[in-house]
């Protein structure tokens, strides 16, 4: 069941832009921006009295000019709310690439949605993303991920929501996210065990470029595949920090070349420029180069 973390990401998810479905102007902008994925939000960025209008906006958006070349995810309201069932009907009608469930507490939250989608969509045609943003969600991250990977299930990606988590725990927003790091790493560990992706939380101060850069660097170093974004200005730095750098690509290519040398045949460990390199590093290097190729092959928005 578990896949090698080095090969877990077959999709680019460096920049995952959230767009309130109530805002047609922002929806229109998604065609022109260079993010890897778009979350169309029906949940917390849409006021209760505007949910119907937001669904209509999305219906129009999907039928008038479908979004190309980006993963399309719809964030619904929880099934236990007054809005969840109508949101799910919309998801089933529109067929995005994934549905994002908010405030997932336990495995059942994911399997319930999986069951609802089972008749209409094959697992690969409509996947499930889960927001981990409650204390129970963090505590259950491994169980949620494990249950989501059972045959027929469609869980593909976890997204951390620190605004809700801070609200529930009282941990304030601070540079470096010191007290939150153990919880963030718990999510990364859970997805790594089952070959999924994790997306780092939004950074609210969208005019604070330095703060955002620092958080992207930290998120990448922690093992996140990308970052959830709230503003188009965050896309370019997220793509840069979560994509492989020129040095990383050169290093990966050197490892691939070294193992391709006939002198390395039958060797599991070699000396590459004074550093021990094993075949597990080759797997990582191939994954990195694969990602770099996906990025180069991406059509500009
Ligand atoms: C935060 C904002 C309300 C700021 O909006 P605004 O004041 O309009 O910003 P700007 O004037 O700088 O905008 C410049 C232009 O860019 C467009 N724009 C802005 N944001 C987006 C966007 N997200 N997607 C597409 N386009 C966007 C504006 O329309 C302007 O265009 P134009 O008028 O033509 O020049 C706003 O950025 C915003 O609403 N952001 C998204 C909020 C959101 O999605 N919230 C939900 C996700 S956060 C979350 O999930 C938290 C999580 O659950 C947790 O618990 O942590
Ligand atoms: Mg939230």
UniProtKB/TrEMBL annotation:
<keyword id="KW-0456">Lyase</keyword>
<comment type="similarity">
    <text>Belongs to the HpcH/HpaI aldolase family.</text>
</comment>
<dbReference type="GO" id="GO:0106064">
    <property type="term" value="P:regulation of cobalamin metabolic process"/>
</dbReference>
<keyword id="KW-0460">Magnesium</keyword>
<dbReference type="GO" id="GO:0047777">
    <property type="term" value="F:(S)-citramalyl-CoA lyase activity"/>
</dbReference>
<dbReference type="InterPro" id="IPR005000">
    <property type="entry name" value="Aldolase/citrate-lyase_domain"/>
</dbReference>
<keyword id="KW-0479">Metal-binding</keyword>
<dbReference type="GO" id="GO:0046872">
    <property type="term" value="F:metal ion binding"/>
</dbReference>
<dbReference type="InterPro" id="IPR040442">
    <property type="entry name" value="Pyrv_kinase-like_dom_sf"/>
</dbReference>
<feature type="binding site">
    <location>
        <position position="133"/>
    </location>
    <ligand>
        <name>substrate</name>
    </ligand>
</feature>
<feature type="binding site">
    <location>
        <position position="133"/>
    </location>
    <ligand>
        <name>Mg(2+)</name>
    </ligand>
</feature>
<dbReference type="InterPro" id="IPR040186">
    <property type="entry name" value="Citramalyl-CoA_lyase"/>
</dbReference>
<dbReference type="Pfam" id="PF03328">
    <property type="entry name" value="HpcH_HpaI"/>
</dbReference>
<feature type="domain" description="HpcH/HpaI aldolase/citrate lyase">
    <location>
        <begin position="14"/>
        <end position="232"/>
    </location>
</feature>
<dbReference type="InterPro" id="IPR011206">
    <property type="entry name" value="Citrate_lyase_beta/mcl1/mcl2"/>
</dbReference>
<feature type="binding site">
    <location>
        <position position="75"/>
    </location>
    <ligand>
        <name>substrate</name>
    </ligand>
</feature>
<feature type="binding site">
    <location>
        <position position="164"/>
    </location>
    <ligand>
        <name>Mg(2+)</name>
    </ligand>
</feature>
<dbReference type="InterPro" id="IPR015813">
    <property type="entry name" value="Pyrv/PenolPyrv_kinase-like_dom"/>
</dbReference>
<protein>
    <submittedName>
        <fullName>CoA ester lyase</fullName>
    </submittedName>
</protein>
